[in-house]
Specification:
Elements lengths: L11 E4 L5 H11 L5 E5 H17 L3 E8 L3 H14 L3 E5 L4 H10 L8 E5 L7 H6 L6 H14 L4 E3 L5 H8 L4 E4 L18 H7 L3 E4 L1 H4 L4 H13 L1
Parallel strand pairs: 1-2, 1-8, 2-3, 3-4, 4-5, 5-6, 6-7, 7-8
Helix pairs in contact: 1-2, 3-4, 6-7
The structure holds cytidine-5'-monophosphate (C5P).
The site of cytidine-5'-monophosphate has 15 residues, from strand 8.
Length: about 240
Amino acid sequence: MDLNLVPKDSPLIVALDFPDAATALALAGRLEGSVKWLKVGLELYIAAGPMFVEELIKRGHSIFLDLKLHDIPNTVAGAVRSAASLGVRMLTLHAAGGPIMLEAAKNAIANLENPPQLLAVTVLTSMDQAQTTAIGIERSPAEQVALLARMGIAAGINGFVCSPEEVSKLRELTGASGVLVTPGIRPAGSEVGDQKRIATPTEALRLGASYIVVGRPITQAKNPVEAAREILRQISG
Ligand code: C5P
């Protein structure tokens, strides 16, 4: 891939999928100095709250707040403003909220000097054809991803969360300026767990990902710091 697409920033984001602040802070502490980006999702955010996020930021981490917002435009705009004032650097919202919701989110932070990167989620990777059909979508999941991505881009959103399977299509749609964040990453030889569409860190970046999200291969490793450093070695070499 064109190396200009890889941000100078480190592309590794570690998913802090823990049920409480103490466990998450302990791991964040161990990763300090090796990993800059941490992802805080619904489980941890609901348990630990905004002050916990501020604490991570104070310690020098960049935070990807993965709350997958999906509500009426006014409510989402307010939530995006609140997240921006916390100081998070990436924030997710559902493209299925529609173009007016996406535009409201974008406009809510348009005047900030250094706004967080908004990332749209298209079709959840847990949704297969049976699930999308059940909610009335006739297109295949892949077609629905492309439709929602085009709609998001038209609404001014150039960041997406996408599986390794979707990343090259989305890179085609967004061009070099798109910010593509890809979970479902498994270093060669690691446990696959419940993930289905996976790629190694190097493959995902070669396919066009700007950032990779890695959870259990680091958080459940015997030595999380070494596991993170090994991934960093692989992607830099
Ligand atoms: O442990 P693992 O590496 O599978 O963690 C991946 C992280 O990325 C988890 O926080 C998961 O919720 C998130 N994620 C995902 N697939 C998506 C979107 C988010 O695995 N499509």
